[in-house]
Structure formats: C-alpha cells, structure tokens
Amino acid sequence: MPLRLILANPRGFCAGVRMAIDVVDQTLDVLEGQSVYVYHEIVHNKHVVGRFRGQGVRFVDDLAEVPEGSIVVFSAHGVSPAVRALADQRRLTWIDATCPLVTKVHAEAIRYSRQGYQILLVGHRNHQEVVGTAGEAPDATQVVESPADIPCLRINDPDRLVYLTQTTLSTDDAGVIIDALKRAFPNIKAPPGEDICYATTNRQAAVRQIAPECDLVIVVGSKNSSNSVRLTEIAANAGTPAYLIDDGSGLRDEWFVPNAMARLPDVPPIVALGDRCSTPGGTPTGLRGHAKQPAVPAEPITVLLTAGASAPEHLVAGVCRELMARFGGTIQTRDIVDEDVEFGIPATLKRLMRERGIDPASRRIHVTTPVITRETYGAVPLTVSASRGEAHASNGADRASGRVPANQRSRTDPA
Ligand code: SF4
C-alpha cells in the first residue's frame, strides 16, 4: 500500500543540540589527538554518542574518571555549580556546551533564590537538566513532577514562590501542572519568559497540528530523549498511533497494515511527568485520558514523520528511503514554523581555537531547514505547504526564528 509521507518542519536538530555536537567535533579537531572527555551523553541520541565513541571520545558520569588536567566537555543539558567546582578542583579544562536556553533557566533559579523565593521546578526529577538547574539553588528548589506532588511541598511563604520548568516538557503536561500550582498558590510567580524552549514548542506544535490527519506517526529519536518521547505522547493524545524509533531498522511492516493501525500501540495514558505518586494513599491526577481509537484509514496510508531535537537528519532521511523502498509513495513537507537559529561557540573553545591560530568566526553554528533530494530521501517533496500558526514569539527565544537574545547566547565558562 503506497504511503503519503508528510515530513514535519521543524523536526530534528535544534540549535542547542547542533551547538553541543559541533563543540565536540571542533574540540576533537582543534586538539588533534588529545583525549577528550564528555560529562554525560553530549545529547540524548545513541547514534550521535556512538559516532563520538568511535572517534575516541570518552563519556563519563563521574568526573573522578577524568584524569587531572584533561579536557572535558559538559553536555547540552547543563551541570550544577558543584560539578563545575569539582572540575576546577581537578584542574580540568572544561568546555561548557550547555544550551543557552538551559543556561537561561539556571540564571532564573539563581536570581530568584537570591531574592528569597522558593523555586518549584516542574520537570523530571532525574533528568540531567533538572539536576543541573536544581543544583544552582539546592536549598530553595523542589521538583514537581505532577499535581500529586503539590500536597507534599514544604512551603515557607506562599507569597514568595516562583515556578520554573524543564525546557523539553510537553507544553500540555506542563500547563496542567502549572495550573494546579496556581490553584494551590494563587500568588506564585511565573518566570519572566517561557522556559519550555522554542524547539520543543515548535516540534510539538507541528505534531499537534498534523497528526490528526494521519494514520500513523513515526518519531525518530532515542528512548532517553525527553523531547522525542513527548512527541509520541502528543500524537497518541491526538488519537494517532505513534512509534519512537532510533533509525530505519526500527520500522515494522505490521504498523502499516490498516487493521493494525486501528489499534493504538501500548502507550499508557500519561498521569505524571515521573512514574510515581508521592501523595500517600493518593491516586495520580490524570493529566489526560486514553487517546481515541482512530478510524481504519483509506488508501494511501498517511504517515507523519518527525524527529526529536537530538536526532540527526540523516536518520530521518534513512527512514524515508526505507519507507519509499518498502511501500513506495510520495513525500510532502509541511512547514509549521521556519527556524533559523544561531548560537555562539563556548568561550573556552574560542580561546583554544585562538591559541591555535583558528578564527572562531569561521566556525559559526547555524541550523536551517534541510534540503530534500531524491538521492538522500528516496523521493522529493511534491508539495510545500505553509500552515504556520500555533507557535508564537515569546521571551527567551523567538519561537518562529528561534533567535535568542544576545545576552543569553553563551554562558560564563572560564575563557
Ligand atoms: Fe536547547 Fe531546546 Fe535544544 Fe534543549 S531542546 S538543547 S533547550 S534548544
């Protein structure tokens, strides 16, 4: 049965991920044969991490594994001040590849804690980004994974509260939790700008808008990628079966049988960001119910293909080629938001480049929409639509362009 394959735009790499990967690539290039360590997975994608392992990069979850005096790169998800201090103690040269939009949330945590606020950080308790942000103000911060956590919070003064959020949450889930916080604490302060980043919002908006007209949604991304998992949940909530695959080898023929598509995959309804209910004897508050069962589709099968922010475009292209080879059909692109984003290179890497006579301006990091060719994707797009709408400009980064104000583009790592 032929496919009508819709490629969501935007999809895949965001500027923060592009920057983090380029930082490791350029560090390897600039240091020519020196050992390079990366603290945690540079981004949550097994192919990206595997490629760097093949180039000799060593990934560690404990700085004690990094020999004194070595070079270490901090991942896009950010680290706490305690990790930076430990790196200094061990005389490591650290290059901070934290996404500037994560750094923005760190800065908010520092500012509000200094002003005497307690911080309620909405996010996944064990996610590296949340651990890093909470580490900026550990005594002032409590993590909220679901409305069920609210009765357990230790609040000193309900008039000195602020909420912040992890950058890669589902906007729907975060909204439910924030509404519950506002009901519990009517005077809680909101962050000055949206913390959920432009890339997360735009990729979710594309799925929310396109999935209802599709029989199936395929998300390219790794299982430990928060924003990739959120995309499958949003599709399922729209009533469309969705599958998360690392690459084309994850495709299953049975997904493309009409009767099989009438059954949703085994995605449980999401009741909380985490997997626990911390209210004694309580039942987690449902954030959303079971997705509706889709109708059996008419031919051809319409498939939405998208990718999480840490998934390289060559994997998306590989999935396209595989689908075109197996089923044939057409590729369309659907533009929801055009992103044109540029982040700066971390200060330490700039210094290392200058020391070796390389002009950092020649190594700018820029993310644009991929060009689709028959050789790379197995077909060329038949139509290019421009149904922009859901995403909006906001503080922090302009949602449409993804541009970040100059004062948020780089963090203050040691130059
Ligand atoms: Fe930065 Fe957003 Fe990408 Fe995370 S998903 S690295 S916050 S742009």
Structure overview:
- The protein has 415 residues and is α/β, with parallel strands linked by helices.
- Helix content is 31%, strand content 17%.
- It has helices at residues 15-31, 46-54, 81-89, 100-114, 128-134, 171-184, 198-210, 226-237, 258-261, 313-327, 347-355, 374-377; strands at residues 3-9, 36-39, 58-60, 71-74, 93-96, 118-122, 141-144, 161-165, 216-220, 242-245, 301-307, 329-335, 341-343, 365-367, 381-386.
- Bound molecules: iron/sulfur cluster.
- The site of iron/sulfur cluster has 15 residues, from helix 1, helix 4 and helix 7.
Q: What is the string of helix and strand elements?
A: EHEHEEHEHEHEEHHEHEHEHEEHEHE
Q: At the first level of CATH, what is the class of the largest domain?
A: Alpha Beta
Radius of gyration: 22 Å
Number of domains: 3
- Annotated CATH homologous superfamily of the largest domain: 4-hydroxy-3-methylbut-2-enyl diphosphate reductase, catalytic domain
Strand share of the residues? 15-25%
Overall residue-averaged pLDDT value = 85
The major pleated sheet works out as: 6 strands, parallel
What topology, given as strand order, has the largest sheet?
A: 10-9-11-1-12-15
Q: For this entry, what is the oligomeric state of its chains? A: single chain
Helix vs. strand class: alpha/beta
Q: How does CATH name the architecture of the largest domain?
A: 3-Layer(aba) Sandwich
Low-confidence stretches: 266-272, 274-297, 389-415
How much helical structure, as a percent, in the residues?
Answer: 25-40%
Count of DSSP strands: 15
CATH topology of the largest domain: Cobalt-precorrin-4 Transmethylase, domain 1
Provide a count of the helices.
12
Distance between the termini: 57 Å
Ligand catalogue: iron/sulfur cluster
Backbone shape: globular
